[in-house]
Write a structure and sequence with these properties.
- The two termini are 29 Å apart.
- 21% of the residues lie in helices and 26% in strands.
- With 213 residues, it is of the alpha+beta class.
- The strands form three sheets. The chain has a six-stranded mixed sheet. Strands 2-1-4-3 form a four-stranded mixed sheet, with no helix packed on it. The protein has a three-stranded mixed sheet with strand order 7-6-9, with no helix packed on it.
- The chain is globular, with a radius of gyration of 18 Å.
Length: 213
């Protein structure tokens, strides 16, 4: 659980096919579509402190991120998302360990502090990172959910020296394998870290029929 501190601007992201209907935000929250984004510039807004504490207490904040001082509140993923994540944990395990990498197909924090970090869906690591904050990873996994910000995280990952990014889109049933070249990412047919490629992985995944869209 991360204490985001005082004074952050809060951005609500009702993603993954859901509407924003958290208790304490008022009836206005249910009027908008599932992809509306709401910025609250005053952290002491009515009901916000209670909402943040409720999310911490129930563990709903485990996917929340802070982007340069802006708290992004992200709902829990769908069952289809979890299904694909579990399959990736199995598929990636042996190739990663054969290459001397540690697979962690679970959320973790990439960044230096609570003021600026991202939470990928999983990753591969050189060595065994410790602590709450991981400076970088050999590879991170992002599983796309409707309306999420996975693609917008790429510059942050590049700045933190992440070698490869695996972007998996269950709705489109497609895998994007990206390699860091200079200061940005370019598509790659195969990983340079493990013995696996985008086509191989696409064929191995038993894609869920209902992705929540």
């Amino acid at each position: 659980m991360v204490d985001h501190g005082i004074g952050v601007c809060v951005a609500f992201f009702p993603l993954r096919g859901r509407t924003l209907s958290e208790p304490g935000l008022g009836s206005w929250a249910t009027r908008y579509s599932s992809h509306v984004r709401t910025i609250i510039l005053e952290p002491s807004s009515t009901g916000l402190d209670e909402l943040l504490e409720r999310r911490r207490g129930t563990g709903l904040d485990r996917l929340d991120e802070v982007w340069n001082g802006v708290l992004h509140m992200v709902p829990a993923p769908s069952v289809a998302h979890a299904d694909v994540a579990q399959q990736l944990a199995v598929i990636l395990d042996a190739p990663a360990r054969s290459a001397g990498l540690l697979p962690t197909m679970h959320e973790f924090n990439i960044g230096e502090s609570e003021h600026n970090f991202r939470v990928p869906d999983g990753g591969l690591h050189r060595g065994r990172p410790g602590g709450a904050w991981v400076a970088t990873a050999a590879l991170v996994v992002e599983i796309i959910s409707p309306g999420d910000e996975s693609w917008e995280k790429l510059p942050f990952y590049a700045d933190h020296g992440v070698d490869e990014i695996l972007v998996v889109d269950p709705s489109e049933r497609v895998v994007h394998w990206l390699k860091l070249v200079d200061s940005g990412y370019r598509p790659a047919d195969r990983s340079g870290l493990i013995d696996l490629g985008a086509v191989d992985l696409t064929d191995h995944i038993d894609w869920p029929a209902d992705t929540g869209r």
